[in-house]
Amino acid sequence: MITKPTLFIDKTKCKENIQRMCSKAKTHQLELRPHFKSHQSLEIGRWFKDFGVNKITVSSLAMADYFSSEWEDITVAFPTNILEIETINDLAGRINLNLIVEAEDTLAFLSENLTSTLGVFIKVDIGYHRTGVAPENLALINQLLSQIDASDKIQFKGFLGHAGHTYKCRTNEGILEVHQKSLEIMARLKNAYGERYPGLIISVGDTPSCSVAENFEGVDEIRPGNFVFYDLAQNKIGSNDISQIAVAMACPVVAIHKDRLEIVVYGGGVHFSKDRLEGEKEGTVFGRVVEQSERGWGDIIPGMYVKSLSQEHGIISVPGSMIDQYKIGDCLMVLPVHICMTANLMKSYHTFDNEVISRL
Amino acid sequence: MITKPTLFIDKTKCKENIQRMCSKAKTHQLELRPHFKSHQSLEIGRWFKDFGVNKITVSSLAMADYFSSEWEDITVAFPTNILEIETINDLAGRINLNLIVEAEDTLAFLSENLTSTLGVFIKVDIGYHRTGVAPENLALINQLLSQIDASDKIQFKGFLGHAGHTYKCRTNEGILEVHQKSLEIMARLKNAYGERYPGLIISVGDTPSCSVAENFEGVDEIRPGNFVFYDLAQNKIGSNDISQIAVAMACPVVAIHKDRLEIVVYGGGVHFSKDRLEGEKEGTVFGRVVEQSERGWGDIIPGMYVKSLSQEHGIISVPGSMIDQYKIGDCLMVLPVHICMTANLMKSYHTFDNEVISRL
């Protein structure tokens, strides 16, 4: 019995998403090191193990700590936060921990303060310009490598990039263009350093690129995360079909305004987050309502979408032909715009078999 | 020792904010029923008790349940969610619970299913158009009142409105214009029903109106919430000075990009939420960096602001004259745009006396 905003997971769709990405990685002989920041759940992590995945990516040391009870090889894909050195040393003593580095100061600190060995990837800015070393800055890369080589606690693993600028693409061609540039940048680094570091790993792979591309030449490892669920934002980018989205929020109807064709649901910014799609045909959209079925949900209902969110309220725009179908106490199923943020706010996933899947 | 994004509270500023609003309510002979969705903390709630507050507002039954251990009179200012009838009955049996209603179906359900008595306010749409009964729809108001009168479990408390459209104002004059219209709408309802219900309460009072207005004619109760902390969005509206903002996030510096005058901090959308200020002189702003002092913080540093947020990353734009002052491992203090959403994401408040104040 649903009584408040509840995040549902369609296990079949979710496992199909996992299987599809695992197959793709296998086809292209890539190591799949999925990013677990999207689901943050030990239980969902186990579904990946069933497909042979044994290495993961996370975005914080807190997440690495949570997953370390069941995973022995974890990359924290966030610039190393030296203030958390105690957690770093604790984790490095228990699992194969990889950090990402891009600054001399960070490596100098690690060299002095590590008590266990760990791996590092040098973070390369492959065009997103959020963070990372410019790939043409070989002087800095050489400096970082000399610091790494001089430490008996730090092992060089390779170069890691994140093409987050694919999230601004709206066509497969756009995604492939970004992806091709990532491959070229990484190929130059592999050429430059492959001989000196024979086992070096080239790690790339955001969800849009990994969903769309079929050429991964020179890549050793991919780290997509969002694909486990997908969402409306990924659909807009072109990563997935609506039918592949594996989570939806059930939201109780608390008020109906027939005069302006709106329904108020219990389900706001503290449940969905306020990530939005801009420039939709309806304007700004914070979620879309889907048809309900007994054990899941179906297509998007045309013209039925979340037009605004406040802390607890969601305002749903409803077609005139449909407004009479709903009554207070019903629940609407809503596809979120950005599932990583939504899942972070909700503390569990509910299945249609009345299971509750917990997370960090 | 700060190691990760940490939400700090300046207790002095916070208590001054509480005192100022309590004084204003007293001056205007208003009942202050503060909205506790902004802080969601029993401990901070106790600071209000010190100023004589004994009634509160919350935005969910879960919050009402949390505060019911210390508060005996709680209004849930969200359209009644009938699916939570068990919680409603539990609370109504323990405390003076007030719900808000605006639909016949909701009242019909309550009449049939309540096991204890409670109060209801009729929610009136005073111009925000999020939800509520249109104030000119006396037929519906009369219908709701007849349902209320027919129930021995439901007591009519009065009319409640929320002028959320003040959040779109950018001047005091704009806020006062909205507030004046609220007063006029509510005066008409008090005139129409005051004789039939002599004790009826007129309840209004968003933070901008309560911060700026000096005329509350006809109003019995105000329910501002955000003023306990204030934030950049309220400052932009004109509710508060920057010096009155009582919370700031400490964010570790993890990377520095001197070439593009940017610092990457640990502090992203999962800490701040992604509420933003649009149309600032710098463009879109997700937070502003303030000067640090030993036991607090000072003014905004001109030109130093959060230009973008992803899940864990915050990108800070830094003036060229200042970039050399910072190093990896420092912490920046950042004022949030919308503290209600930020506080909801962070699970505690830290004081400069090393206290940790918990919340729901």
UniProtKB/TrEMBL annotation, chains A, B:
<dbReference type="GO" id="GO:0008721">
    <property type="term" value="F:D-serine ammonia-lyase activity"/>
</dbReference>
<dbReference type="InterPro" id="IPR042208">
    <property type="entry name" value="D-ser_dehydrat-like_sf"/>
</dbReference>
<comment type="similarity">
    <text>Belongs to the DSD1 family.</text>
</comment>
<keyword id="KW-0413">Isomerase</keyword>
<dbReference type="GO" id="GO:0008784">
    <property type="term" value="F:alanine racemase activity"/>
</dbReference>
<dbReference type="InterPro" id="IPR029066">
    <property type="entry name" value="PLP-binding_barrel"/>
</dbReference>
<dbReference type="Pfam" id="PF01168">
    <property type="entry name" value="Ala_racemase_N"/>
</dbReference>
<dbReference type="GO" id="GO:0036088">
    <property type="term" value="P:D-serine catabolic process"/>
</dbReference>
<dbReference type="InterPro" id="IPR051466">
    <property type="entry name" value="D-amino_acid_metab_enzyme"/>
</dbReference>
<dbReference type="InterPro" id="IPR001608">
    <property type="entry name" value="Ala_racemase_N"/>
</dbReference>
<keyword id="KW-0456">Lyase</keyword>
<protein>
    <submittedName>
        <fullName>Alanine racemase</fullName>
        <ecNumber>5.1.1.1</ecNumber>
    </submittedName>
</protein>
<dbReference type="InterPro" id="IPR026956">
    <property type="entry name" value="D-ser_dehydrat-like_dom"/>
</dbReference>
<feature type="domain" description="D-serine dehydratase-like">
    <location>
        <begin position="246"/>
        <end position="353"/>
    </location>
</feature>
<dbReference type="Pfam" id="PF14031">
    <property type="entry name" value="D-ser_dehydrat"/>
</dbReference>
